[in-house]
Every structure is written in structure tokens, then in C-alpha cells.
Amino acid sequence: MTLFRFLCCRKLDAPSKSEVEEELSGIHNVRLFTYKELRNATDDFSYANKIGEGGFGPVYKARLRNGKLAAVKVLSAKSSQGVGEFLTEIKMISDIEHENLVKLYGCCVENDHRILIYNYLENNSLADTLLGNNPNNIQFSWPTRYRICLGVARGLAFLHDEVQPHIIHRDIKASNILLDTDLTPKISDFGLAKLIPPNMTHVSTRVAGTLGYLAPEYAINGRLTLKADIYSFGVLVVEIISGRKNTNTRLPLGEQYLLENAWELHERRELVGLVDASLNGNFDAEMACRFLKVGLLCTQDNLRHRPSMSTVVRMFTGEQQIDDKKIKKPVLISDFMGIKARTAQKSSESYGSSSGSDIKARSAQKSSESYGSSSGSDIKARSAQKSSESYGSSSGSDIKARSAQKSSESYGSSSGSDIKARSAQKSSESYASSSGSDNRIASTIRSEG
Ligand SMILES: Nc1ncnc2c1ncn2[C@@H]1O[C@H](COP(=O)(O)OP(=O)(O)OP(=O)(O)O)[C@@H](O)[C@H]1O
Ligand SMILES: [Mg+2]
User: Fold this and answer.
1) Which of 1, 77, 280, 404 is geometrically suited to a Cys-Cys bond with 421, CB 3.0 to 4.6 A?
2) Where is region (Disordered) located (predicted)?
3) Is residue 233 in contact with ligand 1, taking CB distance under 6 Å?
């Protein structure tokens, strides 16, 4: 086991300075910044320069000494992800360059500081713009959406099919798609990506991602393959074409889940009705439906039916035809987590404020009440260790979930120390890693719908 892996496994232990230095000495193409340099570049990390805050910590706009703008991501001291993931991110992307991937300039690992310095992207993320309040007032015309879908597909195809060993991003979502000045999409945040050796299906003990984008087999069984990214990408494509978030609990029941809507419209041969009304009909209907169908294909229950990213690119460009007969009902994690049932029963008081449309799931030690956050505008669902209807048991700290009968009840076991939901109705190829008996969902499912 390399030192690097060793560091990653010891997520919560801070490695010594010399360990970090030794590890970094083997990484090329990344400039080491001093903390002082970054303080100067960000005006002492001033509030005015803060451009956002994600799960890792705040992000600041900075002007480097060479005059270039940069995004400085400061790992929060509280962050449980810590050094392991920090080094993962550096290691993953230091050698990788592609038009549709965010460029890492460098990092700072002075004392307790863990900071990443990226190329600054002017036009925020798709979550802020297309799906958010759009501060830059960007017009997402049909050609722009086409270019964004194709660009993200190419970036991901590069990670999956060209980089050796391939890289699973693990957190493809709208907030991780940043837009350059000319709206070229750039995939950001490789902190969750891991190199996996060829011929191996990597089963992670740590599940991180975003609920609405999470492939159920990854969220539930921790079964991580390239197909998990492809699932997330499929959700993203449908969001881009429709201009809607994957989950919106403010909508009436039956309209809250975008993939479900897409499937229903597809069945009625009315898929074109999902295309963003703000385009005012200015789009190529055949092409838009093709993109939506690719989204449906990418989110199939059966992993083998999800196309590779290279195939997706060819489908987008029309080089490869889509066989409509292969499109079956997409699978949603909410089918398994009982979210819909709860949404129906308890919408505002249990899932958070009525203004929230996002769903965040965190594994926690809370009871079913903890599914909601009364203060946040986001909906936070916590997989519980104390609720028999959720993931956890009252005594166990390990949560083993195997897909069961698609009912929330089936996920919980109040008697066992581990919660095991076994894949009963599902085909082994789509969900289960029958050999991996300990696919533990032991840490946070972070999400943002
Ligand atoms: N390279 C960059 N250029 C410009 N803005 C950036 C850059 N990287 C991040 N941002 C902005 O900083 C904010 C926080 O990003 P960050 O990646 O930390 O969180 P996130 O993507 O919203 O959530 P998560 O932690 O789940 O990835 C986002 O609004 C994003 O648009
Ligand atoms: Mg991000």
C-alpha cells in the first residue's frame, strides 16, 4: 500500500508534515503556494472575495502574482474529509488536462492549512445559473445547452475512457459543472474521485455524493463503477434540457421527480414537453428528445443498459442511433429510501422548510425526526442509526444496506446491529455485488438536489 493510499484510508488522522511533504514531492504539475501568498491574493481571505462554500469549506476569488484569477478552496478545519481527500484531489488531477475539466494550479499545505488553487471560472456553476438565480443572467439557448451537454460528456468520457487507470468522479452534479467566459463547461471537484485499478470493481466504504444524482446501487450497496457517474450524468442531462432540478418538493406530488416525469412523458411519446419552456420553442425537437432519451438510458436500473460515456458522446452527435426499445423505466434512489412516502405524509414539517427544494441526506445518529431541518431551506434526509424505517439500527454503527423490496421499511432492522437490506427483487447485476458482503455505508451521503 502506498503512502498515499495509507493517508487516504486514515481519513480522520492528520498525517505528519513530513508524510505530506514526501507524498507531494512525487506530484508534478502542481505549484506549491505559501499561505502568505494566498492571503495576499485573496485580500486576507476577505468576505468580499468569498465566492461560495461547499462541503469542503469556503472558496475565494484570488488574483495571483502573475495577474491570473484563481479560485482558492480552503479546506475547512472541521472538515471530516480532511487531508486524505485533499491529497486525493491533488493526485487525481495534477496530470490531467482537458478542455472540459477544471485546471488545478496548485496547493498549499502549510501547517494546518490545506488549500487548493484552481483556474477561476467566470460564470459560476450550472446550479447557480441554469438551475439557480442566475446572477450573470446567462441565456441558455439551445446551442448553449447542446454544447454544455456535449462538453460535460466529453470531459467525463476522458476521465472514464482515456485516463489510465480510469477515474470515477463520484460527484457529478450541477454545482460541479462550472462555466467559462464563453460558457464552455468544466467539470470540477475531483476530490471524490479515485483511481481504480483496471479489472477491478471498486467498492467503496465511503459513499459521498448527491442524493438526486446518486446511482442507487452506489448509494445503497456502495457499489462504485463508472456506471455510477453515468447515472449522475443522465440526471444532469435531463436537468440541462428541462431547466429543472432533479427533485423539487415544492411541486405537486407526481411532478416532484424529474426522472419520473421524463419517463411518463417518454411513455406517452410526449418527451418534447419536458424541454425548458423558456426556450420558447427555439430548439431542435428531434435533438432535444435524443438528449433526453440519453438521460433516460444513463439512469437505467440495469447497469449494462447504461451506455458508456464515449457512446453517449456519439449518441449526442448523432453518430450512434438510440434504440428506443432499450429505454426502460429509470431507477430512482427515492424509490428505495421511502422519501416519496415521507414527502407525501409529512412534507413541510419533516423534510424541512417549505421553501426548500433540495434534498440532502446525511448518515447520522438521529431518529426519523432528523430527516428534516427546520431551519434550512434545503431538505436534509439523514440516514438514521436509530430509526427502524431508515438505514440504521439502534445499536449498530455499521450500516449495511442491500436493496430490498423498495420499501423504506425493508431497509431497517431494529433487532440487528447492522442493517442489512438484501437485494430481493432486484437483479444481481444491477444492484448487488454478491461477493462484497460488507458494503458499508459508513459515512455521509452528502447531497444537494
Ligand atoms: N474554479 C472555480 N471558479 C469559480 N468558482 C468556483 C470555482 N470552484 C468553485 N467555485 C464556486 O464556489 C462555490 C463552492 O464550490 P464548492 O465546490 O466548494 O461547493 P459545491 O460544488 O457547491 O458543493 P460540493 O462541496 O458538494 O462540491 C460554488 O458556488 C462554485 O460555483
Ligand atoms: Mg463543487
Assistant:
1) 404
2) 344-449
3) no
